[in-house]
Amino acid sequence: MRNPKVMVLSVALPLAPPEAILHDGLPLGAIDAIKAAYGAVVQILDPPKDCFDLTMKINLTKLSTDEEQRNVVLTQIASVREVVLGAPLKLLLRHLASKTVAPNVDKLVALVHRPNESFFLVPQADKVTVVYPMRFQDSIDIVLATSFLQEFVEARRTAALNNAPSCMWSPVPPLELKGVNADALDANAGFVTFVVFPRHVEGRKLDKTVWSLLTFRAYVSYHVKVTSLFSWSGFIFIKFVDP
């Protein structure tokens, strides 16, 4: 008989690239990240259900009676994929805040965020370099993304953004990706590189920086789609007024 106060949630993750660091089949730091995010509300089941990488039992009776706090936890549970996939990034940046490098970590770490698409981290004690190979399917999206990324990098050089992580765009892979599998470097909109220093991850800045880096690809995709939509709207309007 099913218990209405208990919910089971299973998650399948994209296939990890060779440069990824896994622990018990999950990204580095994922288990600790889940425990930190959900506390006693969530129990990790081992082994996970067939065809899944993670299965969690959610005890609804452990949720706070305060509606606002309860909604915060439920929103975090709905974002479990980001919590798991972003765990290595948060771990490396937390070490950066203390100017150290996480133990047993390679010089190049891959984080998968979509099937067959990864971004890469180069952890050092004084900085973490983050590189995104940018790939799009549609030929128009490729042109729009390339233009947007070049303007994005140029805009970040203004005085108002001097305290933000430095940002670069290149049509070819940066030196940090030397030796990476050629398939992972198949980027038709170039490569974006951020350099994160300890001052960018101090205190409360850590979570904001992690979220910004995790969602960068989605941020670019959103702007590309919006630009494409406006372009088509303008084209339709011109055809309407000047058939």
Automatic annotation (TrEMBL):
SUPFAM superfamilies: Arp2/3 complex subunits. GO terms for cellular component: Arp2/3 protein complex. One of its GO terms (biological process) is actin filament polymerization. It is found in: Cytoplasm, Cytoskeleton. It comes from the Eukaryota. Its main location: cytoplasm. GO terms for molecular function: actin filament binding; structural constituent of cytoskeleton. Keywords: Actin-binding, Cytoplasm, Cytoskeleton. InterPro entries: ARPC2 (IPR007188), ARPC2/4 (IPR034666). Belongs to the ARPC2 family. Component of the Arp2/3 complex. Functions as actin-binding component of the Arp2/3 complex which is involved in regulation of actin polymerization and together with an activating nucleation-promoting factor (NPF) mediates the formation of branched actin networks. This is Arp2/3 complex 34 kDa subunit. It comes from Triticum turgidum subsp. durum (Durum wheat).
